[in-house]
Amino acid sequence: MVRMFIQLDNVSNLSRYNCLEDAHDNDLLAAIKLYQQSFRLNVTGILDSDTVTQMMKPRCGVPDHVMIKPKNHGHQDDKGKSFHTVAHYQFIPGNPRWSNKQLTYTFISTAQVPDDLNVRSAFKSAFQSWAQVTDFSFEEVADGSNDADIVIGFHRRDHGDREPFDGFQGVLAHSLPPTAGTSHYDADEKWSSNSNPGLDELDLESVALHEIGHVLGLGHETGLREAVMYPSISYGQTKRDLNDDDIQGIQTLYNLS
């Protein structure tokens, strides 16, 4: 069966740079409809206020890969082609996984973070949440270690990985799947390690929990706002507990369920 992966963030990026005003081709129209369907919005193919609001939310920089399977039923685009989207947890294309279950992590940053931000505690808690539902263990090693499996860092703008950050708001973080093991966070964001972040602050543990999901091989869950792997998070919001969908996804990926 033919399968395709659509990167929904391409539509979002076009919106950010006001490139959709003259877009009329059917492929882009279908992409907008797919974006709306995947985020449980009203499927119109029009950039209405709800769609634009969703596109402009602070979010993870990892692409939204939505698997489409041509079928004889389901939604139809303007050319009459039917498509079906998977409405639960997603894996990174290719289903990359770690074979080693005792992973180490280190911190290598090119930007400073506030002294009162308890970075290590936030990441330790986030790693522990994933360890509790898998057979992984995670151990911090000395900063700058060349032998660590996972490298965590805070950076600004262009930081050498061809995925520059965009400053306050927009993209908050991005991570690579197994076994690359990098997880980067935008130092221009206002991060918080408190359990009650301010309305202009991002909860570091919540975002770290999401990004570690990518490091372990999970993709975005665009259809369930309660899931940790949902691609966006609001300022002042906390998501420090894995959703059943997150747990089912990681256990299925590693054949634990």
TrEMBL record:
It is a lipid-anchor; GPI-anchor. Ca(2+) 3 binds at D166, G167, D186, E189. GO terms for biological process: collagen catabolic process; extracellular matrix organization; proteolysis. It is found in: Cell membrane. Keywords: Calcium, Glycoprotein, GPI-anchor, Hydrolase, Lipoprotein, Membrane, Metal-binding, Metalloprotease, Protease, Zinc. CDD domains: ZnMc_MMP. Zn(2+) 1 binds at H159, D161, H174, H184. Its cofactor is Zn(2+); Ca(2+). It holds the Pfam family Peptidase_M10. A motif (Cysteine switch) lies at residues 58-86. One of its GO terms (molecular function) is zinc ion binding. Ca(2+) 1 binds at E189. Residues 94-256 form the Peptidase metallopeptidase domain. Ca(2+) 2 binds at D149. InterPro entries: M10A_MMP (IPR033739), MetalloPept_cat_dom_sf (IPR024079), Pept_M10_metallopeptidase (IPR001818), Pept_M10A (IPR021190), Peptidase_Metallo (IPR006026), Peptidoglycan-bd-like (IPR002477), PGBD-like_sf (IPR036365). GO terms for cellular component: extracellular matrix; plasma membrane; side of membrane. Its main location: membrane. Coiled coil: none annotated. The active site is at E211. SMART domains: ZnMc. Belongs to the peptidase M10A family. Matrix metalloproteinases (MMPs) subfamily. This is Peptidase metallopeptidase domain-containing protein. It comes from Acer yangbiense.
